[in-house]
Amino acid sequence: xxxxxxxxxxxxxxxxxxxxxxxxxxxxxxxxxxxxxxxxxxxxxxxxxxxxxxxxxxxxxxxxxxxxxxxxxxxxxxxxxxxxxxxxxxxxxxxxxxxxxxxxxxxxxxxxxxxxxxxxxxxxxxxxxxxxxxxxxxxxxxxxxxxxxxxxxxxxxxxxxxxxxxxxxxxxxxxxxxxxxxxxxxxxxxxxxxxxxxxxxxxxxxxxxxxxxxxxxxxxxxxxxxxxxxxxxxxxxxxxxxxxxxxxxxxxxxxxxxxxxxxxxxxxxxxxxxxxxxxxxxxxxxxxxxxxxxxxxxxxxxxxxxxxxxxxxxxxxxxxxxxxxxxxxxxxxxxxxxxxxxxxxxxxxxxxxxxxxxxxxxxxxxxxxxxxxxxxxxxxxxxxxxxxxxxxxxxxxxxxxxxxxxxxxxxxxx
Length: 414
Known about the structure:
The chain has 414 residues and is of the alpha+beta class. Helix content is 43%, strand content 16%. The chain is built from 9 helices and 13 strands. Strands 2, 4, 5, 6, 8, 9 and 11 form a 7-stranded mixed β-sheet that branches. The longest helix is centred in the middle third of the chain and has 36 residues, at 206-241. The protein is elongated, with a radius of gyration of 24 Å. 40% of the residues are buried.
C-alpha cells in the first residue's frame, strides 16, 4: 500500500481522467464533526436502502402449515407463502416414517437426492380465482394439484441418470370452484451444492399474482437496462478520455447487469432464451458471479491507486482463473470451487474497502460518494446472504421491486 504522509493534502491524478482526477487540490479544512455527520448520513442511507429492499414489501403471513395442512381462509386478494410443515411422502436421503413432516421452504442439508412432499390447502373461496407461483427449485421439480401436473421444471428422477435439471419460474391457475386442494411436490437434485425447495411456493389471488409477476419482470428489465446504459456511457468515456477507471467501472456495471439477467428470481434469461440449457446457464452464472469482486477491486484500484500495477495483477489472477474454470468445467465440478471463490472474494472486497478508506482519508475527489456506493453494494450483498432463505417472494432482489407494494399490493410471507 502507498503510505506517503507528505502526499495527503494534494492527491495526484489517478488515471489522467479529468472527471475522476482533477488537477485541482482536494477540498481542505473539513472538520471532524462534519466528517462524522457525513458518515452518519451515509450509514443512514445504507440502512434505509437495505430496509426498503428487504423488509418493506413483506407483511405477516396469513397462514402457517401445520401437520401438512394450511388454512387459506384469511388470504383475501393478496398472497401467502406456503410455509410450514409439509408431509414427507418419500426421501431417498433417509428413511421416511408415516406422519413425518419437513419444514419448507428450506435447503437440504444433504443436497443430493429425491424427495416428495404433500400439502393440503383448505379454506379456499369457490368464487375466487387462485394461482400458484414458483421461483426456481433446485434443480428439478414437478408440482401436482389433485393428481394433475400443474407446473414443472426439468425432470425430477430418483437418480442422476433419470433427472434432468432446469430452472423454470412458473405461474399457473388452480382449478376453479374448489374449497380444498392437495399439492404434491417432487424435487430432485444431483448436480448442485444446494438442493430442495429453496425459495418456496406462493398461493394467491390469480389477478394479484399476475400483476406482481409482471411488475417484478418489468422492474428487473428496467434495472438491467439502466445498468447497461451506465456501462455504455462509461465505455464511451473510456474511449474518449482514455480513462482506465471508466473502462473498469463500465465492465463492473455490465457484469452487474448480466448477473441480474441470469440470477433474478424471475429469470429474464429463460423468458428471452427458453431453450438455453441448464448446464450453459450454470456455467455463465458462476463465471459472472466470480468476476464481480475482481471487477470491483480493479475499479477501486483504477480510481484511487493503492497498489502497483503488478500488485493489482497479482491479486486479480485467482479470480480470473476461477471464472475461466467456471466457464469450462461441468457444473457439478464447478460447485466444488465455491469455497475458494468465497475466500478470494473476501480478500478482494477487503482490498477494495481498504482502497476506498484510504481515498476518503486523503480526501480524494468523489471518494466519499463512491465509498458510499461501495458500502451500499456490500450491504445488499451481505443482506442477500443473511436473508435469502427467507425472502422468498419473486423479484425481491431487484432494486426496483420494493416499489410495488407502495402502489397498493401487499405480499404475505414468513
